[in-house]
Design a protein that fits this description.
Distance between the termini: 143 Å
CATH class of the largest domain: Mainly Beta
Order of helices and strands: HEEEHEEEEHEEHEEEEEEEEHEEEEE
Number of strands: 22
Number of helices: 5
Strand content: over 45%
Shape: elongated
CATH architecture of the largest domain: Beta Complex
InterPro entries: c-di-AMP_regulator (IPR053154), YbbR (IPR012505)
Protein name: YbbR-like domain-containing protein
Organism: Fundidesulfovibrio putealis
Helix content: 10-25%
Number of domains: 3
Radius of gyration: 42 Å
């Protein structure tokens, strides 16, 4: 009997514990709490020929009141406010957001919505043909000359009326082409357009020819004398004026000055006296000699 009484007491304690936990769960579940949830905004029903000028917002902040247990289970990814665009007309529109438009169960109460209204601008959607101009980056434009043809040369752009009104051309930018001294290549380019503006077609074929930008330069260059004979030798004049054509990028860097050379090579068997001889000029790679003055120099052997 004593064992049975003890068992009954354990059952009674377990039952009491279960009832206590159940009571706590029911009470806490019914307790109403407030919490902020984020509600995504989507637009539907906008009439053909109209376009929203920029998105009003991406989301609403909604203060929700409801049972604690259910509030914890709210999943913001399931909450979407649908902006009914059928009622919108061109111009500025004010959309008041009513609590019943927030998609929540009746067990929840919408306490506050931020913002409580949306300002929505609607414009007419228009199209027009525009010529396309190819643009290269400033650095490339300084160093190379380009000529290009685009296919097609004209695209049709579509978008909000206010954006297209002052648009007279479309720019397509050439991105890092393979560059040598000169050559040609084909590339696919895309028009650079404002947000909410699109073009047809979306890509174009650019056939590009290019060559280095060349600049003229002149340098007073010392003449080196290469002579291994037994006598003394000198050269006059001791410097010459070298005019040449060079890539613009080379001249801009400045290191080219040490790469321009003028020299005269004298045979060891040259007899004493004054001899007018030609000299040689070496230039940096990619440069073209225009003129060297004087054409000859005098070598004096003593």
């Amino acid at each position: 009997m004593g064992g049975q009484a003890m068992t009954n007491r354990w059952y009674a304690k377990l039952l009491a514990l279960f009832l206590a936990v159940l009571s706590w769960y029911l009470v806490s579940g019914r307790e109403r709490v407030d919490t902020w949830v984020r509600v995504r905004i989507e637009t539907a029903g906008l009439a053909d020929g109209l376009v929203l000028r920029g998105a009003p917002r991406e989301h609403l902040d909604v203060l929700v009141r409801g049972p604690r247990g259910l509030v914890r289970k709210l999943d913001p990814s399931d909450l979407v406010f649908t902006l009914d665009a059928r009622k919108l007309s061109p111009g500025q529109n004010t959309v008041v957001i009513e609590p019943h438009s927030v998609p929540l169960s009746n067990v929840f109460e919408v306490v506050e919505i931020r913002p409580s209204k949306l300002e929505v601008t609607v414009e007419r959607r228009t199209s027009k043909p525009l010529p396309v101009r190819l643009r290269v980056r400033d650095q490339l434009a300084r160093d190379y000359r380009f000529s290009a043809t685009l296919e097609p040369p004209v695209v049709t752009v579509t978008g909000p009326e206010s954006l297209l009104k002052d648009l007279n051309e479309v720019v397509a930018e050439l991105q890092d082409p393979p560059m040598e001294a000169k050559g040609s290549f084909d590339a696919v380019v895309s028009p650079l357009l404002p947000d909410q503006v699109e073009s047809a077609p979306r890509t174009l074929k650019a056939s590009v020819k290019y060559q280095l930008n060349m600049r003229e330069a002149a340098l007073d260059t010392p003449v080196r004398l290469l002579y291994h004979g037994k006598g003394a030798a000198s050269v006059a004049p001791d410097s010459v004026l070298i005019k040449f054509r060079a890539p613009a990028m080379l001249l801009r860097e400045g290191a080219w000055r040490g790469l321009v050379d003028a020299y005269v090579e004298v045979a060891e068997t040259l007899p004493p006296g004054r001899h007018d001889v030609p000299y040689r000029v070496t230039l940096p790679q990619g440069c073209e000699l225009i003129q060297a003055r004087p054409e000859t120099v005098s070598v004096i052997i003593k």
